[in-house]
Sequence to fold (114 residues):
Amino acid sequence: MSLVTEFNDYRAKMNEKILAGDNKVIKRIFNLDTNTYAEGALSEKTKEMMGLACSMVLRCDDCVKYHLGKCFELGVTDAEVQEIFSVATLIGGTIVVPHLRRAVEYWEALQQEQ
Fold:
């Protein structure tokens, strides 16, 4: 199973289980997250690129993978991804480097599945 498929399948399965608990607060948080990245004054693409940079700085590999997937879907280029990576690594410091490695691996996996 590919890295991308494994991540997406697990994420979908666990989100389904979480939402099946019918917890109002959790449902509202998920909804807020969805609505935050909708087209607005900033484009969806811009918001996803911001989400990627923030996720790298916060060192959340699952969030990095999710935002990389959305960036890929929205046509973010290799050059744009490299600049996002550079900004995130500058802001986050060298502790971000291990997450940068995994992000590069996942970006390559997305491209290979195309």
About this structure: The radius of gyration is 15 Å. The chain has a mean pLDDT of 97. The helical segments are 3-20, 24-36, 44-58, 61-73, 78-92, 97-113.
